[in-house]
Amino acid sequence: MNHKSRQQQVIKAFEDFLSTPLETLLQRHLNTQTSAALTLFHDVAANVPAYKAFLAEREINPATIQTLEEFQKLPAIAKQNYILRYPLADLCRNGQLQACDMIAASSGSSGKPTFWPRFFTDELQIATRFEQIFHDSFYADTRRTLAVICFTLGTWVGGMFTTNCCRYLASKGYPITVITPGNNKEEILRVVQELGSAFEQVVLLGYPPFLKDVIDTGIARGVEWQQYQIKLVMAGEVFSEEWRSLVAQRVGLQNPCYDFASLYGTADAGVLGNETPLSICIRRFLAENPDAARALFGESRLPTLVQYDPCSRFFEVQDGGLLFSGDNGIPLVRYDILDTGGIISYDAMLQFLAEWGFNPLENLRSDTQQSPRGIHQLPFVYVFGRSNFTVSYFGANIYPENVTVGLEQPGIQEWVTGKFVLQVKEDADKNRFLSVVVELGAGVEGSEDQRVAIASSILSQLLRLNSEFANYVPAEYQTPQVTLAPMGDAEYFPVGVKHRYTRK
To answer: Nearest-CA neighbor of 438 among 397, 388, 499, 504?
Structure first.
């Protein structure tokens, strides 16, 4: 792409974003007859060298893929069989890395970052997800709003992406002012106290356990959160509705459906979906009615539940896992992100809830004095999280492999079998901590000194191997709480049963 056409592309995309009302953007999928995913496939098959090679290796002729049914038989791509197999430039359109203007990083199980290039226009479609939240949930078109970015800054995807999207909303005319303390707790507290009262509301954007830690630290220091009309935008992990209610109470929020929004996001493709007042209202009903939740999701745990725009990100379910297609600096076609979950259409969701005697639309109307925002006929996607045994902690994916290395160090390996159970738990005050139950070797009693040494070894390897852990998790939450269990412990290490290294 030459300089002039790139400039024209930017101008047109930004003009469209600035001039198109949110409602119009969210109704595109109702009016389109052609599949956005099929259109994307043909574009990528023609213009992305890596995907051309991927199809050629499998003897697939793109011209034969003309229907959605044929599209859904295409082989899925993933990090292992696609992203890591081809040079970075070949994953971009026309093999041109320079056609992207920004690169973000995400950390894999080895701790070696994967790089994700993107261009300005990729951020605009993600900015619509933020506009949904700021307009529908926070009424930020009519309220002077301070957006405080509490995600980690630097190459990590969350901080810079979120900052840019919030600034695009300000360009669109929203009275939003952005400040970027990142995950510096002292700076966040200073910003809120010194600037917060100049605005009608303050939005904190960050990982759920980190935001709670900021709030609790503020309370301990006498910060009166109520006076700032706090709102929260979160990403990175599943949390309970009890957690949402507790945080709402601590900052004086009256209406959780409109005061919070969680993003389903990924370094690979930005924001895939977002909580809406409607999805939160539904999830809170399901949290109180576990039988209904089990009937809907097929599990006794409550997943993240968001709505998504199929014109921006097209979801499919295959073998209980989620695949999505979407345009980015690295366009992705039927990408397996290793999340388990499912999709539910808007009509099917309302019909299911009606069978359980619940009407979320009426519920939202009774909660708001005016006609409620945030009701759009968008499909739902629910996400249980990574299927490859990771746990998510302060937004960092923690892998069993990282812990294994900590137990394999000299002086440690003599005491243990190498088996462990990794979990993220909550204490009585709903603060999260990283729990590792370690199986002791035969005849080893287990002392406090050994427990401390094992915790220290695991911590040093997590910091060494997992760059997300090192950058996302505040220092005071990094040391795992290690419990030593005897060999064959019935609860954690039953004999003769295939061992699972993580528990949700």
So the answer is: 499
* Dihedral sign for Cα atoms in the order 364, 365, 367, 373: positive
CB-count exposure of residue 34 (10 Å: 0-12, 13-18, 19+): exposed
Ranges of beta strands (E only) in 215-331 are 230-235, 260-266, 270-274, 304-307, 313-318, 321-326
Q: Which two tokens stand for residue 23?
A: 């409602």
Report the DSSP beta bridge partners of residue 271.
265
- For 296-316, how does the pLDDT look when each residue is reduced to its tens digit (9 = 90+)? 998 767 889 999 999 999 999
The answer to whether 287 and 240 have CB atoms below 8 angstroms apart is: yes
3-state helix, strand, coil in the chain (%, to 5): 45, 25, 35
Return the closest-CA partner of residue 237 out of 115, 380, 447, 386: 386
| Residue 185: Cβ-neighbour burial (10 angstroms; 0-12, 13-18, 19+) | middle
Q: Which DSSP string do the residues of 475-487 spell out, in sequence order?
A: GGGTS-EEEEE-T
> Which pTM does this prediction carry?
0.86
Cα-to-chain-centroid distance, residue 135: 20
Amino acid of residue 500? R
Q: Where are the alpha helices (DSSP H) in 73-177?
A: 120-131, 157-171
Is 109 a residue whose pLDDT tops 60?
no
User: In whole angstroms, what is the distance from residue 231 CA to residue 195 CA?
Assistant: 15
Report the CATH number of the 392-485 domain.
Answer: 3.30.300.30
- What pLDDT does 26 receive? 93
Name every residue whose Cβ is closer than 8 Å to that of residue 169 and which is 6 or more positions away in sequence.
Answer: 127, 130, 131, 134, 140, 176
Q: How far apart are CA 145 and CA 180, in angstroms?
A: 14
pLDDT single digits (tens) 188-214: 999 999 999 999 999 999 998 899 989
How far apart, in whole angstroms, are the C-alpha atoms of residue 131 and residue 154? 24
Evaluate if residue 74 carries a pLDDT over 80.
Answer: yes
> Whole-angstrom Cα distance, residue 13 to residue 11?
6
Side chain identity at 271, as an amino acid letter?
A: V
